[in-house]
Amino acid sequence: MFKQLIIKKDSRWLGIWLLGILAAGIWDNLFLNKPALRQVAAGFVNTFSIALLVVIFTLLLAWGVTLALHFLDAGKNKAPYLLLTFLLNLIRSIPQIVGILFGYVAVSVLVQAGFLRSEAVIFPLLAFCISLFVFIEFVDLMRERIAHYQKLDFYNAMRVCGIPEGRVINFDILWKNSRIHILNKLISVFGAAIFLQCSVDFIISVGLSTDVNSVTLPATMGSLLAKIDSKQDILAIGYALTHPGYVGNLFFEHLLGLSVAFLIVFSLMSIYHIANGYAERHRL
Amino acid sequence: MKRKLIEHGMSIAFVTAVLLCILCMERAGTQAGIDRENAASRQYGDLGFVDVSDPFHKALLKDAVNIFYPGQFEKNNAAVESILANREDEFSRKLRKSNVEERLSWEKCGLLLGMFVKFVLVYAVVMLLTYYGVQTLAVFRFARKKLRARASKTTFPGVVLLIVKTVGKTAAYFVLFSPAYVIAYSIRTEFNTDTVIFMALLGVISNGLLVTYANKFYAFLVAESRKGYVETAVVKNLAASYSPRASDGIPYGSMFRPIKHFRGHVFEHIFSNAQHQYLSTIKEQASFLITGLIIIEMALNIHGHLSYEMLRQMLYKNWDIVIVIILGIFYTVKGTEIVVDYLGYRAEKRIENK
């Protein structure tokens, strides 16, 4: 059983990721001061909660839009199909970071104005902003899968047998025959969500800090990294590169920034390997 | 191609129209606000000559108003006080915002154009470098994998070599997956990270861009190598060795050349077919690359660059300038999409002998 897990690249990297996070957690517990530790824990949980919500929203959005495109394309009136395609291509042409940045600024304006108070509302809104600029790739994948199966005999055979098109698309194509592809894409979306979220939070905290500060948005790993203490910790890495004797101090005196940076980079790397391993195992 | 061009043209026209409408509305809104503020003082004519800090001017204004509107002393005094307070507020607001408030002017447009050209140049260089890097890494990995698969027995390297390789590989992965700001801040004390060259380098190696798209290209190579025509070509004696030293293999020179050719080798066809499939991914890569460059400029606060300027203008709420910058970035993405579609169309024509 254990050997099987080790052989599979995706399981192996999942294990490495969890062990790495556990090791970082234990180290931080031992050597990081308690207020900073609480911040790192909160940032970590918030970041991953939002990323998880992004995955859920992306799946729902993509599935819904794919079905809409499919049935609109089959209809007689092509105008709604063309309009939807046009809108999707428009979103595709907006660099993700720009779209998400404006979404975040809008959310923070709502928070500042007092319209949004609870994290239970803010988190899904932030996640929705990210998923809106991530889900298009997912739609492409689902459309490709449907187009591929439509060319095969089984699609027509099922339709002739009287099985409703909705069931063939939803159940037989997307669920039964494409869920591995979908899951693989979801893993990649999870990684992309963490990267985009950390980057936007970092940019907002660094560039718009006087207006949209960490008080208005929940603390995430990106905003934690932008704090002056963390930045100084990261700057210390450069010093350690030219003064190798200083390397040891990094793990004790510059733990806040180093922990946050490690958690971001290590998670991105591990998620990439998990997705990659999963794709290799299933020969996608 | 014509249909695609029409679609691109329509979306460019649509976005331009929408953003220009927002720009006009924003300008009209700002002007309306100024007019509203000045409305109260305008009922007494042009008061530009009144020095609000001079008590004599204030008293003279009050007397003049009382002469023009007799019998409402209290009301006149309150109105004049309000006008003077507004003018004082306006003066101090202008003073406070003198270095942050900017309006879109021809001079500003010229400055933005310069930044835009710089942005596009950096983007083009990084795009070419990543395109080269993606293909080279994928080809190298593919050839190595093939060589390993064909090796009859596996030789284990020494422990030291294994440790060095593992550490080196992990370090390389950490750099490649690091967001640009983590790398830049880590070496900021020792190097100047605000140069264009550093920015371009960071755009290539950071944010996971290179490794993600190299993997995609590698996946295309693997999928292509599994197709039947490859087996047929091998059976028909086309060179199929992946050893860099063999006479019928793939030399390192071919792998690392900017424009890659593997003449007489089955890999020539695998590579060119994978390259054709990769064209559809370039749009996605371009969008991600632009995202990366924007992150670098914004997160590192690189002065005089387009994205940093956008962030600065967002902070100071100079929305007209922000809109123009967004329009520039949108045109860059659209330009890339049009070029990629054209290249795809040309390749399609060549393949189908049209």
Count all strands of chain A and give the number. Answer: 0
What series of H and E elements makes up the topology of chain A?
HHHHHHHHHHHHHH
> What fraction strand of chain B?
under 5%
Q: Note the quaternary state here.
A: heterodimer
Shape of chain B: elongated
How much of the polypeptide of chain A forms β-strand, as a percent range?
Answer: under 5%
Structural class of chain B: mainly alpha
Structural class of chain A: mainly alpha
Mean pLDDT of chain B: 83
Number of helices of chain A: 14
Low-confidence stretches of chain B: none
Biggest interchain interface, per-side counts: A-B, 42 and 47 residues
User: What percent of residues of chain A adopt helix (DSSP H or I)?
Assistant: over 70%
The helicity of chain B comes to over 70%
Notes on the structure:
The complex is a heterodimer of chains A (284) and B (354). Chain A is mostly helical. Chain A starts with a helix and ends with a helix. The mean pLDDT of chain A is 88. Chain B is elongated. Chain B is an all-alpha fold. Chain B is 75% helix and 0% strand. At the A-B interface, helix 4, helix 5, helix 10, helix 12 and helix 14 of A face helix 1, helix 5, helix 6, helix 8 and helix 11 of B.
Q: Quick gist of this model?
A:
With 284 residues, chain A is mainly α. Chain A has 14 helices and no strands. Chain A has helices at residues 2-7, 9-31, 34-74, 79-92, 96-112, 119-132, 135-150, 153-160, 165-176, 179-207, 221-226, 228-242, 247-253, 255-281.
